[in-house]
Design goal:
The chain is α+β, with helices and mostly antiparallel strands and about 130 residues long. Helices cover about 35% and strands about 25% of the residues. The strands form two sheets. It has a three-stranded antiparallel sheet, with helices on one face. It has a two-stranded antiparallel sheet with strand order 4-5. The chain is elongated.
Length: about 130
Amino acid sequence: MSEKLVAPKGFWADLIGFCLDNKLIIFLLVLLAIGWGAVVSPFDWQTSWLPRDPVPVDAIPDLGENQQIIFTEWPGRSPQDLEDQVTYPLTSALMGLPHVRTVRSYSFSGSAPSMFCSTRALNFTTPGQESWRN
């Protein structure tokens, strides 16, 4: 009572079988796809032997929130020390700024990132001097 295993038949089995039986054709098709990708790529490659027809690329605007992230570090301190000495005073000061909508802060061991979202973009011209853009 020996059972003979029968390979499943179907589209994918036939396709894999064709690829395994015709390695040269598959290799040439892969080379053709790579060459076509090099011809239409949007990068400015200087190739005199390859005709160029790059696909135009449009710039996508940034529709995200206007946010700033402040990373503070105090190595060797506990999260509670960071919360009391750094995160809470910084969060309180950020909530007092005009046009600030959201302030989020986290205290970890040795570091405390703070993030605030505003209704306008903040333009840092020089360190310590902030100005708001309309």
